Amino acid sequence: MKIIRLLAFVPFALAAALALPTVVRDVSAQAPDFATLEATQNAANGKPGPRVVPGRSIPVPNTASPELRAMIAAPYRIPNWDANPKNAAEWKQLIDRLAAAGAAAQQGVREKLGVSMETSAIGGVKVFILSPKQIPPANRNRLLVNVHGGGYVYNPGEAGTGEAALMAAYGGFKVISIDYRMPPDFPYPAAMDDAMAVWQEAVKLQDPRNMAIFGTSTGGGMTLAMILRAKKEGLPLPAAIAPGTPWSDLTETGDTYKTNEWVDNVLVSYDGYLRHAAELYANGHNLKDPQLSPIYGDFTGFPPAILTSGTRDLFLSLTVLTHRKLRRAGVEAELQVFEGMSHAQYNFDPFVPETKEVFTEIASFFDRHLGK
Amino acid sequence: MKIIRLLAFVPFALAAALALPTVVRDVSAQAPDFATLEATQNAANGKPGPRVVPGRSIPVPNTASPELRAMIAAPYRIPNWDANPKNAAEWKQLIDRLAAAGAAAQQGVREKLGVSMETSAIGGVKVFILSPKQIPPANRNRLLVNVHGGGYVYNPGEAGTGEAALMAAYGGFKVISIDYRMPPDFPYPAAMDDAMAVWQEAVKLQDPRNMAIFGTSTGGGMTLAMILRAKKEGLPLPAAIAPGTPWSDLTETGDTYKTNEWVDNVLVSYDGYLRHAAELYANGHNLKDPQLSPIYGDFTGFPPAILTSGTRDLFLSLTVLTHRKLRRAGVEAELQVFEGMSHAQYNFDPFVPETKEVFTEIASFFDRHLGK
Predict the structure, then answer these.
(1) Which of the four pLDDT bands, split at 50, 70 and 90, describes residue B24?
(2) Which residues of A touch B269 (CB under 8 A)?
C-alpha cells in the first residue's frame, strides 16, 4: 500500500526534476495543475504534523499601491540579508559601505520632505535632532525619541535617521534620533546604555507625558527594552510607544520565521545575517535575557502602544506575539498590518503611499495619548 | 553564462527528484542545506518579479498554546476544503452531512459552556437565540446579532450556532443567530434579504445603540454588507461590529490567497470549494457587487469595528485590507491577529485559550462602544 502510494508520485517527481532548472527562473510556467497539487498536498498533509507546502511562484499582488508593488517585486537585498562577515574587520567594511550609501540617500530624502537635521549630544551620546519645516501648535511641547533599526549592526550615523525624518515630516514632531554604539566594537549592553542615557536626559528637556519612543525592527525591540529598563530603574515612562515590527526575540522564535521565509524580500531568512548579528550583539549573553529579547519581560504598566507589520514580514509573528502579550498585560495596544509588505518596508521610501499612511496612523495615535 | 547557471542547478534538481516521494511524507529529512537554498533562491529572486519560494516543511510553532498547536498540526479538512459538488443534489448531500455532524457537536459545546438556546423567528426568518447562564447587569439591555460562516453553503440550522454560543458564553451577551437561506436552493440575495429582515425587526426589540453585529468569514462579509445596506435603506446602524476574517471579496483578491495557500489548513486554497461556492451563491451576479464583496463599498460612517485573523489565515489579506479601508474612511477599527492560526480556527474549539481570548477582546470592544 505504502509502495503503491509512493510510486504514484514518481511521474510528478521526475517531471519536477526535469523542470527544476527552469522552475528557478519561472515556477509558474511549470507549475503542476490544481488537481495534481490537490492530490499531492492532501497526501502530504493527511496526518497531524508539520505543514508541507510546495514550491511556488507568488505573484505581486494588485492590492497594494503601484509604488509598494514595485517594492514587493524587488529582488532580495544582497548582501544585506545574507551577509556573514568572518571577522570584525569584514563587519566594519560592510557596515561602513552600507552606511555611506544610506547617509547619501538620507540627505536627499530630508530635502524632499522639508526636514532639517542637526547633530548634538544628549547624556554624552551622539544624537541627530530632526525637525519639520513647521511644528503644528499641538506638537510644540512634544518631543519624540527614535531608536533606529538595522539588526544592531547596520545604520550607524546619518544612515539611521530615515525613520526619524519620516515621523518629523508626516507627524509634524521634533524627533531625537539616537546614534547608539554597536558591534563589532561595542556589543550589548552599549546600545541600551546609550539609549537609556539619552532617555534619562531627554525627560529633562520635555515633560515625559508629552513624549513618545518609537523605532522599527531592532529599534522596536530596543523601544520595548527601554520601557522594561525605565520601569526597573524608576525612570519616567513616555506617554506612548510605537514598536514597529519589533525584533522582540533574538532567537528564531515565531511562526512567520518559517511561513514567510523566502517570501519576505528584506530579511528573507533568520539564517541570513540575523543569526550572526544576534550572536555578535549578544556577545555571549543569554539571547533570552529580556534586555536582549524583551518579549520575555513583564509588560505590565507599559504605555499605550501601536505596532506595525506587513503580511509578508518575517517578523509578523514577533509583532502579533508582542501585541497579544501587551494586551494580556492589560496595555492599550493597537495593531496595523499592511498588505504584501515585507519587513520594515514602510521605512524605505518616503513617497510610497503606505509609508505616509503608517506614519500618519502612528502620529494620530501619539496625538491621542500625548499631553500638550 | 546562462547555460552554466542552469547547469549548476541540475544536481540539486536530480536529488530533489529522487527524494520527492519521501519529500511528500517529510520534506525536512531531504531539505537542501542553507547554502544551497541561499544560492538557488538568490538566483531565482535576483530580478524584479514574482517571489519564487521553495517547497518546505513548516514546523508547528511553539508560540501558540498546546491546544492551538494541535489545531495548527491538524491535517487539511477533507472534504470541506476541496469539495466540488457537480450539481444541486450533490451539494445538498454534502451540506446535510456536514451540518448533521456540526449540529451534534454544538449541543455538547452549549452544555459545557452553560449556554441555552431557543429557536424562534424574527421578521419571518428562522433564528436561534443563545443566552449565557447569567447575563451580567451591564449587558441586560444589550443584544447581539450573529451571522454565521460557511462560504454561503455550509452550516445551515444548528450547525451555524457555534460562534453565537462562544460569544454568549465568553461575552455574557444574549445573541440572535440568523439561520439565513443558502444555495443551492436560495442563491444571492436570499441570505442578505434574510439577514436584513432580522435586523429590521431586531432594532425594535432593543435600542440599536445597545446592539452589535458580528460574524466570521462569510458572516464577516455579510456583517459589512449589512451595514452598507442599512446605510442605503436608512435603517439604524449598530453601535459596533466585529467582522472576523471577513470574506469581504468573493474574487481571488489579496496577497495571502497566495502566500498562505497550502499553509492554511482550513481553507487551503481558493481553488478548493471557495471558487465554486462563490459562483453558486452569486448565481450570475457580479462578484464585485458591494453586496457580494463589501470591500468595494463605501465604508464612510461605519460603526467602530474590531477585526480578527491569524498569521496562517488565507483571508489575512482580506482582513487587513478591510481594516485599512475602514481606517481610511475614518472609522475606528481595531485589528487582532493570532499566531499560527488558520482561517476562523478561533471558532472551532471553545476550550482553546486563544478562542476565549478572541471573544473576550471582542466583548470588551463591544462593552466600550455599546450603550447600556
Answers:
(1) very low
(2) 34, 37-38
